[in-house]
Design a protein that fits this description.
The protein is mainly α. Helix content is 71%, strand content 2%. The protein has a two-stranded antiparallel ribbon with strand order 1-2.
Length: 192
């Protein structure tokens, strides 16, 4: 088992300069995120997608500042250019930034991302962002009656979906972030 880096990394909150290959990889991951975002199943209220895969890798390699910037750009571009028929709402941008921050705080500079870190990150994103914040934004945008009962009615199917997706997302994230190809790419691209 690989040794984890558990000490705070100097420069975690700085915006590290990227060389050409690191910037190109970041651009490819942004493209992957866009493609995965288009491959969703469900409605505006209840969607299933694997966008978390690209964002998890961005968080692992580029840290909190880059991840939050990319999450912001992806959300704005996704709502205004890629899917212009959708409604842009600043709350979803805040949700994307929060999810990116959570992933980066748990994954950044980890040679081997442990099950515990993935369980924590995916759990926080699932509960705080997906079930909590995003349900609140949908409630504000689409609910005709703003009562607790109507919020719970909107929350329940989203919470059930989140509970069902949680173990799948944990397993996919662990397999993806800790596979040999990602570790080899980390060494080659980032000299780590």
């Amino acid at each position: 088992m690989a040794v984890q880096n558990t000490t705070p990394v100097k420069g975690t909150w700085s915006l590290p300069k990227l060389d050409v290959s690191q910037f190109v990889v970041l651009a490819l991951l942004v493209g992957l995120d866009i493609v995965l975002g288009k491959l969703t199943v469900g409605t505006n209220v209840l969607k299933i997608s694997f966008v978390f895969v690209a964002m998890s890798l961005i968080a692992k390699w580029y840290g909190p500042v880059w991840t939050m910037m990319i999450a912001t750009i992806l959300d704005v571009v996704g709502a205004t250019i890629i899917n212009p028929s959708g409604t842009f709402f600043l709350g979803f941008t805040l949700s994307a930034i929060t999810a990116g921050l959570i992933y980066a705080l748990f994954y950044y500079n980890q040679v081997h991302v442990s099950w515990l870190r993935i369980l924590g990150a995916v759990g926080l994103v699932t509960l705080v962002v997906n079930a909590g914040m995003n349900t609140l934004w949908l409630f504000i945008m689409y609910s005709q009656v703003h009562t607790w009962d109507s919020f719970v009615t909107l929350l329940m199917p989203r919470l059930i979906k989140s509970i069902m997706m949680y173990p799948i997302q944990v397993i996919v994230t662990y397999a993806f972030l800790n596979n040999a190809a990602v570790k080899q790419a980390t060494k080659k691209i980032f000299n780590k």
